[in-house]
Fold:
Amino acid sequence: MSNKVLLEATQLSRYFGGKAAVDDVSFSVNQGEVVGFLGPNGAGKSTTMRMLTGNLAPDYGEITINGIDLLDKPGLAKAQIGYLPETPPLYKELTVTEFLRFCARLNQIESRQQQTAVDTAMARCGLTEVAHRLIANLSKGFQQRVGIAQAIIHSPSVVILDEPTSGLDPIQIREIRQLIREIADEHSVILSTHILPEVQMLCDRVQIISQGQLLFNDTIDQLSLQMQAHTLLVEFEQPLAADFLKQVEGVSSVETINLQRHRLHYRPDNNPTQALLSRAVSDNWRLTTLMPERRSLEEVFMKIIQKEEADV
Structure:
């Protein structure tokens, strides 16, 4: 992954009727990076996406695309952006080739380079075999590929995809995800999605927005750390009193599920696993299960959102 910054948003704010839909949001996206953009309905996600694509001006803040100021030089900056809205903007009465030629002209690609751009976009998106078919007669998965092809036909620096796998079947979803990863090799990709597992599978970094504010902006590895629950699920062949487990070094509290099964809570910097194993062997506790627990991505997402709501 390159360290070259292809998109930078600085202190973005946008108000509607005196209420902040987006409030002082800043982030950057590097070349070769897929950034997942998450947020509940009404969080400010769509408003942010509209500002990043130049469809809505911020009240405050700056956006630069590959070093070009989007507000000062909108034409030049927008030429560096590829955008796929949730509903692909397709002319379904055209063939794939006809539509992409039209998109090449819209993006002001030079006449002698248009056919090369069309052929390249079709090849990258797996559309060559359906080049002469009407878009209306294609499956939704292939129509989504055409939508992605129009977004990358002019080789933009930044590709913004809004719910790109919405409504697709599992095979189509897998194919589109693979395509997005391939696109990210040459571009920056911002991926707006409600499918949380998709973030884990595709993204290098995650941004979570709620009530107009960016609550989380870090790598997928850091998000995975938050998924650690700092609890151990233990089970014994015979009943064992919780008081014995509380004496194990590192155990901060014990939650008894039944006489043989317990949940041990511990601080992140003091995992009691080794101490527990030693005690179990020395005291013949007949330990049959020792399993670290993890939160789901959905639980982490809700925890971040609910913490913000509680602080308001």
About this structure: Residues 1-80+156-227+297-312 form a domain with the Rossmann fold fold (CATH 3.40.50.300).
